[in-house]
Amino acid sequence: MTSPVIHLSRLARWGITLARRRALVGVENDPNAPPTVKRAVKLARWATFTSKKGEPDYAGAFRAIGPAAIKLGQSLATRPDLVGEDAARNLLSLQDALPPVKFEEIIASMEAAFGQPLDTLFTEIDPEPVGAASIAQVHRAITTDGRTVAVKVLRPGIREKFARDIQTYEWAAAHLEAVGGEAMRLRPRLTIANFKRWTNSELDLRREAASASELAEEMKGIGGYRIPEIDWDRTNGRVLTVEWVDGIKISKRDELIAKGHDLNAIAERLVISFLTQAISAGFFHADMHQGNLFIEDDGTIVAIDFGIMGRIDRRARQWLAEILYGLTTGNYKRVAEIHFEAQYVPSYHSVGEFATALRAVGEPMRGKPVSELSVGQMLDGLFAITRDFDMQTQPHLLLLQKTMVMVEGIATQLNPAINMWDTAAPYVRSWIRDELGPEAALAERLKEDTDTLLRLPGLIRRIEEKFPPKGGAPEPPPLPEIKLITERRQGGAGSRFGYLVALLAGAGAMWGAVAMGWIG
User: Fold this and answer.
1) What does DSSP assign to residue 476?
2) DSSP type of residue 276
3) pLDDT tens by residue, 110-131
4) Which of 165, 287, 422, 451 is catalytic?
5) Which site from 66, 145, 329, 419 is most exposed, i.e. has the minimal number of CB atoms within 10 Å?
6) Is 287 a residue of the active site?
7) How many CB atoms lie within 10 A of CB 83?
8) pLDDT by residue (tens digit) across 38-57?
């Protein structure tokens, strides 16, 4: 168990780094920040002789702290309610890139992970990495059977470093939440718990391989989008080997145009593929930044890097689809009702008042030019009203919100005139009709009732085990209830004294009866 002194020393060191880049000024100026936190960040700024004036460098601060902080910063980019809109916007630019580990250390790590010499698995591994991030780096290689592959290798010691830093994040979040008020509503402990779960998944490359395989199955019927094939024989917890992808990064717009690609079609396909994953499958690639998407010669989108995945259960997906459709069609009352049904808004608030607040968010975007419509703007507006209606943070939706903003940014870069609402609305409308229409409701009811009927025999067997049938012996007659003197009763010492007197009196009566010859 790490001592509080160590946690405080780490927080102080990180606080100084953040203060030097003015990344704490927003907290200091926030009227809703707890006073104790405001005093701490002010002290950190004074200690570094830093003025409030100047542009904060949030991304640079998190990059300077280290790998775990880079991942945390990317996670906080989805939380404008927690860090502020300016900080969240700046953190979206936080690139997960670090200097590569020496190739000799990578080779030693791979051989230790496989427990055998690498020449039994690969004929060639390029010493120069094609990418080096905070958790792992990737090398191009050729297998012994002649296939070109990408080999992803965890940085040596990265699991231990993440575990140390996350312990301190948990400790700090617990103390922040204990302050109460706004800090409790924002649920920082749950935010760190989700962050821990995401990073633990990223730190086990077998999990990433399994996620890629699962997503490939879910997207099998979707044309123009695919997942690279996993080489399971050359994959373990610290090494992941996948098919090499020859394509153009989706960020290289000029190269895509030179190749003759239809950027409008690619943008629409990207949006639909995301909606298919999130709404239809409930399992989506949650790290869709520009470095993880490639376009092949035939226009197929190829996604890589499945360390961060999101899941949404069926009921939440139904709510999500209705919310999106309600916002696109202006049905704010239904959107408000869903928030109450999902218990995102406490029941003591008014549905009508919440619908009016939603209208204030949605209406300013209606009727504007396509280039001015934004999912990001909509999310910012929703965050702005959460405090007024005591809405607690929903961590299970944070990855979805982050990915929606990412997808919109890439789609807009490909086609500045794309309308996310118009692109999404037909798909969402079709899904709602299929999943929430009368036929779907009847099918769901039949399925639930059938499942209930099939469970009845098991229920009856369990009841019989609890209350077995009577045997061949006759049923005993009712017996009178006899109060035992050993039973403890209310009344304490007085009751026990009464029993003692009764016992002595009874014994005396018996002795007298014997002495008188009444009892032989």
Assistant:
1) P
2) I
3) 999 999 899 899 999 999 999 8
4) 287
5) 145
6) yes
7) 21
8) 788 788 878 888 887 888 88
